[in-house]
Amino acid sequence: PPIASIELTKQTSRRTPPEQDIGGYNVKT
After folding, report:
1. pLDDT tens per residue, range 1-29
2. Phi and psi for 9 in degrees, rounded to 5?
């Protein structure tokens, strides 16, 4: 996926739980 997507998921992961991602990716940060 594009880096922009990863950055977006990181920002969204802060609001949403680390298990849930707006991009649909499971990112544990």
Report:
1. 456 665 665 655 455 555 555 555 555 54
2. -65, -35
Alpha carbon 9 to its chain's center: 2
- For tokens 């991009």, the residue is 23
Secondary structure (3-state) at 3? helix
Instruction: Check: CB of residue 16 under 8 Å from CB of residue 25.
Output: no
Domain ranges, residue 5: 1-29
Domain count, the chain: 1
Cα dihedral across residues 21, 19, 1, 10: positive or negative: positive
